[in-house]
Amino acid sequence: MNHPKPGTVDYERHVQEEIEYFSSLFKEGEGRETLHQPIPPSWQEAERRAAMLINEKTGNFLGGHIEKRLNSRPCIRLLSLGSGACGMEIDFAKTCPQAKIVCMDLNADLLELGRERARQLGLNMEFTPTDLNTVDLPRNEFDFVYCAAALHHVIELERLAEQIKATLRPEGEFVIVDVITQSGYLMWPETREAVRNIWKTLPARFRINHTCGPKGQVDEEVWESDTSQHGMECVRSGDILAVLEQAFEVKHFVPYFSISRRFLDTMYGPNYDLSASLDAATFNWIWALDRHYLESRQLRPETFFGVYQPKKPKRGLLARLRGSF
């Protein structure tokens, strides 16, 4: 698949579309107040259950992993890549005031929201507008790097992985949660088949599309379009795991959301009132199928949590022989 190259007119168009879309989410209302992207209650519940999975498999929640590292010793330095309006990073800074947190994002307007909130709270944070496709990170500068749902907006994944490796200090770690759909937010073929079969069973009110098309439109087929044609959404999401595998050793890897994204996030999620019996039963059915498909390895995950460490260079034969004496 061809992707726009940094420095080209096509690339700048994609960048501008990306900036305009995410700026619109924080212009007013809940997003501007909380500095977190607004999501429907159904997706909040799905993410809560995903957090429980992460805790079950790794011994801590996502936020707990970050805070444990920030509190491990004084003056820990954290770099957050693709931090947006920095809502999570500000939460971390409030809990771990002795740490130094640096936030980088393409969108200067969103970073300014975070900077102003941090100033009001007196937090020890820095905010740097940065294009992750072209960034040159300082070497040996950070104790760990955090990246929440940002790599799937990056074209130059291999380059960025090397930058992250270079900026981590010895024993540093890369903590990440991200989307790993087929590139362009398309479904993997086997996922598409399962989702379409489930879709046919849903009442019309669960199939109202809240983000694409006319308001109140009921989709006869689950929405699917290549999002990478506009902006950077999932531009190379299908390549993320392979790139990480080349550059890093895995310490923790927790896959989740085989099908849940297609029913419960911002597009169709507002259709679910979890206090209503049918809605709650449908939600629980989708979640149970999601777990079944992953545990039986019938479907791939569309999201994951991971903790990675840079691969150590392999010693040459002579060095290995010397080490044996």
Structure description:
This protein is α/β, with parallel strands linked by helices and 325 residues long. The chain has two domains: 9-183 and 236-257 and 301-323, Rossmann fold; 187-225 and 259-300, no CATH class. 41% of the residues lie in helices and 16% in strands. The protein has twelve helices and seven strands. It has helices at residues 9-25, 29-34, 41-58, 62-70, 87-95, 108-121, 157-167, 189-199, 240-247, 261-264, 277-295, 317-323; strands at residues 77-81, 100-105, 125-129, 142-148, 168-179, 248-256, 303-310. A seven-stranded mixed beta sheet has the order 3-2-1-4-5-7-6. Helix 7 (157-167) runs parallel beside helix 9. It starts with 8 loop residues before the first helix and ends with a helix.
| Total count of domains | 2
**CA-based gyration radius:** 21 Å
Question: What's the order of the H and E elements?
Answer: HHHHEHEHEEHEHHEHHEH
CATH topology of the largest domain: Rossmann fold
Question: What name goes with the CATH superfamily of the largest domain?
Answer: Vaccinia Virus protein VP39
Given helix and strand content, the structural type is alpha/beta
Overall 3D form: globular
Query: Which percent range fits the helix content?
Result: 40-55%
CATH class of the largest domain, named Alpha Beta
Number of strands: 7
